[in-house]
TrEMBL record:
Homodimer. Converts the preformed base xanthine, a product of nucleic acid breakdown, to xanthosine 5'-monophosphate (XMP), so it can be reused for RNA or DNA synthesis. Its EC number is 2.4.2.22. It is found in: Cytoplasm. Xanthine binds at L20, N27, K156. Pathway: Purine metabolism; XMP biosynthesis via salvage pathway; XMP from xanthine: step 1/1. Transmembrane segments: none annotated. InterPro entries: PRTase-like, PRTase_dom, Pur/Pyrimidine_PRTase, Xanthine_PRibTrfase. This is Xanthine phosphoribosyltransferase. PANTHER family: HYPOXANTHINE/GUANINE PHOSPHORIBOSYLTRANSFERASE, XANTHINE PHOSPHORIBOSYLTRANSFERASE. GO terms for cellular component: cytoplasm. One of its GO terms (biological process) is XMP salvage.
Length: 190
């Protein structure tokens, strides 16, 4: 998506060789018009699929997910994060290890918000090692919902997340694909 690539070029800050800081439009301050354009783009990319609900993980997945849900005219649910596991019959939970932060979060969705047989689109801000998406897939499995696909705002093709999802045969659409960071510059794939 050209608009997003331009925004990354303009406002993104490369940290070392693996991390892109985009806290002025995606991870802290939010650019609503860009989020809306991205939501419309995801809806377009997955059109033709029946989608009943959008699922993401707090906090940075929420903005793109809500605009995607708006464009699809369906509800959006976000998994909540907790440091300690709250075992409950009323929740689906999964462990998500963050390589960036070197900590494990438990992600939690109330059972009332996923119904067996529903068709779900997963959205997230970054695809790096794929842990967050794997956590959502685990919850989807436990809830017996069907995952239609995964929409990612920024994919880093040099980390292992994409390969994991491709191996599972999951339909992945990324709005920007980054092949590498070189000398503080973003190298886009394709
Ligand atoms: P994963 O998201 O593929 O599982 O990879 P990883 O474990 O590395 O990601 C941990 C956290 O770091 C996630 O946010 C993820 O979105 C974020 N992240 C990964 N790579 C980058 C990057 O290059 N730049 C930025 N800005 N973030 C990155 P989180 O812990 O879930 O935090 P939140 O922002 O959603 O609250
Ligand atoms: Na994030
Ligand atoms: Na995230």
């Amino acid at each position: 998506m050209k608009l997003l690539e331009e925004k990354i070029r303009q406002d993104g800050r490369v940290i070392g060789t693996e991390v892109l800081k985009v806290d002025n439009f995606l991870n802290h301050q939010i650019d609503p018009k860009l989020m809306q354009a991205m939501g419309n783009e995801f809806a377009q990319l997955f059109k033709g699929q029946q989608i009943d609900k959008v699922l993401t993980v707090e906090s940075s997945g929420i903005a793109p997910a809500v605009f995607t849900a708006l464009a699809l005219d369906v509800p959006m649910v976000f998994a909540r994060k907790k440091k300690s596991l709250t075992l409950s019959d009323e929740n689906y939970t999964a462990d998500v290890f963050s390589f960036t932060k070197q900590e494990t979060n438990h992600i939690i969705v109330d059972k009332r918000f996923l119904t067996a047989g529903e068709r779900i689109l997963l959205i997230d801000d970054f695809l790096a090692n794929g842990q967050a998406v794997e956590g959502m897939l685990e919850i989807a499995r436990a809830a017996s919902v069907d995952v239609v696909g995964v929409g990612i705002v920024i994919e880093k093709t040099f980390q292992k997340g994409r390969a994991i999802l491709d191996e599972k045969g999951i339909h992945v659409e990324s709005l920007a694909r980054i092949a590498a960071f070189e000398d503080g510059q973003v190298i886009f794939a394709d």
